[in-house]
Amino acid sequence: MALSPHLDDVALSAGGLLGTLTGRIAVVTVHGGAPPGAPPSHWDRRCGFASASAAIEARRSEDRAACEILGAEPVHLPHPDDAYGTPASTETLAEALAETLAEVTGTRSAQDTLFLVPAAIGHHPDHRRTRDAALRALAARDAGELWLYADQPYASMSDHWPGDGAEAPADEEWRARLAPVVEDFGPLEARTLRLSEEAWAVKHRAALAYASQLAPLAVYAGHFLDLDGPLRTELVWRVDLRSASPRRDSEKGAGGT
Questions:
Q1: Structure confidence by residue, pLDDT tens digits, 30-55
Q2: Which N-terminal stretch is annotated as signal sequence (predicted)?
């Protein structure tokens, strides 16, 4: 079960990793809705949409296409993202994720499910709320294996991100950003995945499915779809949820980019 703050984050950040997994895969987008009748956000306008509802409808369609390419089942929660000015609280998201977890896993134990959660690199408020809500909900359910993934394109906008042939990025770049999670759950085990040509071809097709986002993303993140560019490498950290429980107030100090 992979948690995506927005309708593209998992595909861009961990699409290659999804291809290594077996069994049922669900990609749950936490901020997959918009306030009724809301005007377009600044990002919506950059993508050419005249209303928030038109943007969400198009992005959900794109996400369904991308998930089909990745062999995953899309699940879209209705919460608006921070750009619309009415984001849900971490507590509300944690409750919603607990319900979604029960629906998706069914009778299967949470300890038998692998969870992928954004590390919130880049300090985007939606990513932070998604991460903290997920950690809260999963710890309460005594979930087993959890990996934090490096958020793209934020993570690769750094001189430390590996290029072609690199084995691993410098962990120091993210140590401070992951400090709150380390405080709660202990040291994190890192894993770097460099995609093969075959795996990259699949991820590349999935990324192209988000057609409405590509032009403004290129302006923001540069040549992120290069053959040997940043999306060819994925980075995750393993979190041991059984070593501690979240203690922080995740609503404090939320920033944005």
A1: 999 999 999 999 999 999 999 999 99
A2: none
